[in-house]
Every structure is written in structure tokens, then in C-alpha cells.
Amino acid sequence: MAISNIWYFLSGLTLLSALMVVLAKNPIHSVLYLVFTFFCISGHYVLLNAQFLMAVNIIVYAGAIMVLFLFVIMMFDLKKNQPESKSSLTKLAGSVVAGTLLVLFVALLRKNNLPAPSEVNFKSQTGMVETLGKILYTEYLLPFELISILFFVAMVGAVMLGKREAGERNF
């Protein structure tokens, strides 16, 4: 019973901080709320016994990606590039679409009865590094290698686009 209470608490915090990412007026505050959202999601990983994913989520997303976002936001001159205010018709249309999606989501959740997890199929080593590595390097070896090639090509492309020759124009 205590685990489900922790899950509900973390889920509420996650949804609240994700909502604050969207509603915050200051982009720096938005980034900080997003970091808090990533920490809440990492808490969910701990509850799922996936400590490796929790550590990777904190290191990669809450650490590296958010620092990059913060640098990009600080490089912009936010005082100069203020967007014009949205009309009330646009706000009304967005509210109607969001309300419709919320009603559909609640109706789908009430209609479907999700089965409770059984203790018979529970494996305590599911999210551990050793199990994840075995699955990654046996069943998913080809997609893993293709993704690594894709990342390498993207890295070379970023270096080539970022490199400037004398007298060359940017795109």
C-alpha cells in the first residue's frame, strides 16, 4: 500500500511540474520545472526497480540536456523578441481542445480495466544493468548498432555545420 501512495504522490508532482513547464512565463523557470519533472520521473524508475534508467535519466536529461537548453535560452535576447499576445479566440480554441482531450482520456481510463500485476511473473532483476545489457546486445543488436551509426553521422554533420571557413556565410 505504501508503494502505491508514493506512486500517486510522484505522479501528482510530475503532472504539476510538467504543467508548470508550460504555464511559466519565464523560460528559465520553465527549464527548472522541467529538471524537477525529470527527477520525478526518475523516482518512478526507482519504483519500477530500474536504477540504471534512473541514473541515466538524471545524468543525461536533467544534467546535460537541461544545461544545453539553459545556455540556448540565455543566448537569446528575450527582452527584444517578445511574442505578441494571443487573441482570446486562440485561447478559447486551445482550452476547448484541451478539455476535449481530457474528457476523452478520462473516459478511456474509466472504460478500460487494467489488470493488476501478478507476483508470479515478477522478476527482481528486470531493470538492472546486466539484464538490460544482455537484451540490448542480443535481441536488439542491429537497431543498437544502427542508432550508434546515426549518432555518429549526426555528430559529424553538427561539426561540419558548426565549422566556419574564412569569408563563408551561415545558412
Describe what is shown at a glance.
The chain has 171 residues and is mainly alpha-helical. It has 6 helices and no strands. Helix content is 73%, strand content 0%.
Topology:
Elements: H1 2-23, H2 27-47, H3 51-75, H4 88-111, H5 129-138, H6 141-162
Question: Would you kindly provide a written description of the structure presented here, covering whatever features stand out?
Answer:
With 171 residues, this protein is mainly α. It folds into two domains: 1-78, NADH-ubiquinone/plastoquinone oxidoreductase chain 6, subunit NuoJ (Four Helix Bundle (Hemerythrin (Met), subunit A)); 124-165. It contains six helices and no strands. The longest helix has 25 residues, at 51-75. The relative contact order is 0.06.
Structural class: mainly alpha
The shape is extended
Low-confidence stretches: none
What's the domain count? 2
Enumerate how many helices there are, as a single number: 6
Average pLDDT, all residues: 83
The proportion of residues in beta strands is under 5%
SSE series = HHHHHH
Would you tell me which CATH topology of the largest domain applies?
A: Four Helix Bundle (Hemerythrin (Met), subunit A)
CATH architecture field of the largest domain? Up-down Bundle
**What is the CATH superfamily label of the largest domain?**
NADH-ubiquinone/plastoquinone oxidoreductase chain 6, subunit NuoJ
Can you identify the CATH class of the largest domain?
Mainly Alpha
Q: Describe the biggest sheet?
A: none
Helix content: over 70%
